[in-house]
Design a protein that fits this description.
The protein is α/β, with parallel strands linked by helices and 337 residues long. It folds into 2 domains: 216 residues, Spore Coat Polysaccharide Biosynthesis Protein SpsA, Chain A; 74 residues, no CATH class. Helix content is 36%, strand content 21%. α8 packs antiparallel against α9.
Length: 337
């Protein structure tokens, strides 16, 4: 572990992302002078490392000999830094001037908070919120994630309607500000997830330990999205369905565990919908996700910790599916908490 004088490090996980580094790393270096910027390379076999040495020779690189995935890649990287605060930043995020100041000041001033995120907008459609985090994340009673500014696939335009600092259920892994000691104390990202929803699981564990999470929308970043795994890829379907069930089994209080059975029935209906659309690979992905979930139940149960009742203001105790698909509500502000 190297000596450092700055209190915050930005860790950018890279896997064969030369083009993304070319496009997005300059904005990070330009607007992050108060941070140590570190590229964490997950055994890339493109020209990523050579590109960094040639064009950004002063940027520190942490290299792994094999692809550890999103979760374990960051876990190992955090062991190699000793900064008080860390930002886990996707390689496809464009940051803006002064983007670090408000989230960092918020975490410094609020000891009960473990993590926060900035406002995340869409690089392809800059007036709109971005799917992966928008203005802070929540889940409903059945574990479906959503955001201030995004319900399922419906993205709102940003007109300043969510510009207040707000307690949230989860902060997006696309731009995840976290206190390093809290991260390590809570066990970090669950490496068994490999990728997808591991930041939601971590935030749920933060909440169960009594920490809080916030969105600090005075800071804005722009996320390209889909750089690691396209939304249409069956592997993404597999990871999302498997990891969501795993997360619920790990973190729900005992009295609420039967909700997992309801969720599994709804997963089956989602599979039938994929068949109706001719997307058979996604149907198979759900079957495989459930099989993987069953196989991992003994290990998952070992990871259960003492749970806490989650405040109604950050967990939607109703069914978002009903609101969205039956009642036709596509706007976060119309939810009746």
């Amino acid at each position: 572990m190297e000596e450092q004088s700055k209190k915050i490090a930005i860790l950018i996980l890279n896997w064969n992302g030369k083009e993304l580094l070319e496009r997005f790393l300059p904005s990070v270096l330009q607007y992050s002078s108060e941070a140590d910027v570190i590229v964490v390379d997950n055994a890339s076999n493109d020209d990523s490392i050579a590109h960094l040495h040639k064009n950004f020779p002063d940027t520190r690189i942490i290299s792994f000999k094999k692809n550890l995935g999103f979760a374990q890649g960051y876990n190992e990287a955090l062991k190699q830094v000793n900064h008080e605060f860390v930002v886990l930043l996707n390689s496809d995020v464009r940051v803006t001037e002064n983007w670090l100041q408000d989230p960092l000041s918020f975490l410094e001033a609020n000891p009960s908070y473990a993590a926060c995120q900035p406002k995340i907008k869409d690089e392809k459609s800059p007036n709109s919120f971005e799917y992966a985090g928008a203005s802070g994340g929540y889940i409903d009673v059945l574990g479906y994630p959503f955001c201030r500014g995004r319900l399922f696939g419906s993205l709102e335009e940003d007109s300043g309607q969510y510009d207040t600092v707000k307690d949230v259920f989860w902060a997006s892994g696309a731009a995840f500000f976290v206190k390093r000691k809290a991260y390590l104390k809570t066990g970090g990202l669950d490496a068994s997830f490999f990728a997808h929803q591991e930041e939601i699981d971590l935030c749920w564990r933060f909440l169960n330990r009594g920490y809080k999470i916030a969105c600090v929308p005075q800071s804005t970043v722009y996320h390209l999205g889909g750089a690691s795994l396209d939304a249409a890829h069956p592997k993404k379907t597999f990871l999302n369905f498997r990891n969501n069930l795993t997360m619920m089994l790990k973190n729900l209080p005992a009295y609420a565990l039967p909700l997992i059975l309801v969720r599994m029935v709804l997963d089956g209906l989602a599979g039938l919908k994929y068949i109706g659309e001719g997307r058979f690979k996604h149907f198979v992905a759900i079957l495989k996700a459930h099989g993987s979930f069953y196989a991992r139940i003994p290990d998952t149960l070992k990871k259960r910790v003492k749970t806490k009742s989650i405040n109604d203001s950050i967990q939607y105790k109703k069914c978002l599916l009903w609101d969205y698909f039956v009642k036709g509500n596509k706007n976060f502000q119309k939810l009746r908490w």
